[in-house]
Specification:
alpha/beta
């Protein structure tokens, strides 16, 4: 399969944007876990419409307050992974959910770990907002692009987390959160 690629310089570091020609198949931060392998035929996609649109919309997200992405997406994964990724897209800008919340929304509250594994394999970072998934107690949990980036994305969106010192969060599912005063990021 032919894979079209271009680079995007985000405020959080370089990102690789990947498409199949018609749809976006990947958005990866440099050095993130599960970065794509070099097995496919790779072509410069700098002038490909879907990649140009992705760059523009990412610019708007990082700099102008874009809340929704309007791009054709084609993430590759198992049927369960694609269900999880579809559910991630239902999490509104500035809100968070726990892995248990997502498992419950998918019909099986006992699949929190499976949801976590699928969330971690999300190939379309930021646009499919896996960064909006946090621990059940409201604390920051893993992110393939790195916890610092996850915290930056949540801060950009105005979401808050429980204090790191072990205090439990008072946040619940579907609660809008406000940004903590002690976080500052340059965007």
């Amino acid at each position: 399969m032919t894979r079209y690629e271009t680079l995007y310089e985000s405020p959080l570091g370089e990102m690789l944007l990947v498409a199949n020609g018609d749809a976006l198949t990947g958005v990866y931060f440099s050095h993130q876990k599960y970065f794509p392998e070099n097995g496919d035929v790779r072509r410069d996609g700098g002038d490909l419409a879907v990649l140009s649109a992705a760059k523009q919309q990412l610019d708007e997200y990082f700099h102008d307050g874009r809340r929704l992405f309007e791009l054709s997406l084609a993430p590759e994964g198992t049927p369960f992974q694609r269900q999880v990724w579809a559910e991630l897209q239902r999490i509104p800008f500035g809100e968070t959910r726990s892995y248990g919340d997502l498992a419950h929304a998918l019909g099986d509250a006992n699949k929190s770990r499976a949801v976590g594994a699928a969330n971690g394999r999300n190939p379309i970072s930021v646009i499919v907002p896996c960064h909006r998934v946090i621990g059940a107690d409201g604390t920051l949990t893993g992110y393939a692009g790195g916890l610092e980036r996850k915290l930056s994305l949540l801060s950009l969106e105005g979401a808050a987390l429980a204090p790191v010192e072990g205090a439990r969060a008072a946040t619940t599912r579907r609660t809008r959160l406000s940004a903590p005063a002690n976080l500052a990021f340059d965007f």
